[in-house]
Every structure is written in C-alpha cells, then in structure tokens.
Amino acid sequence: MLMNAYLNFDGNCEEAFRYYAEVLHGELPHLMRFADAPGCEDMPAEMKNRVIHVRLEVDGHVLMGSDVAPQCGGPYEGVKGASITLNVDTKAEARRIFEALSKGGKVTMPLDRTFWAELFGALEDRFGVPWLINCEKDA
C-alpha cells in the first residue's frame, strides 16, 4: 500500500504546484486540465483551464492535487484539518523551505528548536495549505 496526500484548490492549483516544484526541487510529470479530460466536454468555459489532476514528485514521494469543480461538492472551503509535513536533513534546508513557503502566507509557529527536533515550524502558505517543517538532526 502507498498513501499520498491530495490537495484541492479553487482555481490556483497549477500556480501552487509549480511553486511547490520550484521550492522542493521536484518534477511535475503529469498535469491535466478539465478541457483534456473525457466526460468534461460540457463543462462551463471558466472551468476548462482548471487542473483536474496534477502530480508532484520529490525524491520518490508524491503530492497530488486538483482544482475543485463547483458542481462536485459545492463551494471551495480551503484545506482544513490536515498539514503537509516535510522532514528535511539539514537546518539550512529547513530554513530555506520554511522561508519560501511562508512568503505571502502566515507563520503559525516560528521555525525554532524543540524537544524533538533541531528545527520545527508551522505555516500556512499563500495558497492556504498548512505545512509542518521538521529537521530532527542536522546531517
């Protein structure tokens, strides 16, 4: 079994995932729009350029996402009740990623030493996604 997180957005999925790929040094091998998906021919024009599925690959790990279609569950309410956790090997990498992801977002716990980690911090990025950055030991 393999378990991956799947994020939903309200029209800015592509922007978010391109930013995550840049910050996390990842690849986007798959990005598909509603316009290209079977069964979406009658979708409203404003939805056709939205992302129906994207896949980010970073060091053998996967994060996926899409833009929410209003007809599939009502209005978008943001990411709630979950965070994406990044466990990094060095304090320098923790600082770099924390700074990049918090730019334009909101820091909920500053990056600092804790009883379990050399550095740990929490933030919500500018796309509304909560992240936990954890560096248990400096490699």
UniProtKB/TrEMBL annotation:
Domain of life: Bacteria
UniProt cross-references to InterPro entries, sorted A to Z: Glyas_Bleomycin-R_OHBP_Dase (IPR029068), PhnB-like (IPR028973)
CDD domains: PhnB_like
Pfam families registered for this protein in UniProt: 3-dmu-9_3-mt (PF06983)
Source organism of the structure: Pseudomonas triclosanedens
Record domain PhnB-like: where: 6-133
Name of the featured protein: VOC family protein
Record field: transmembrane: none
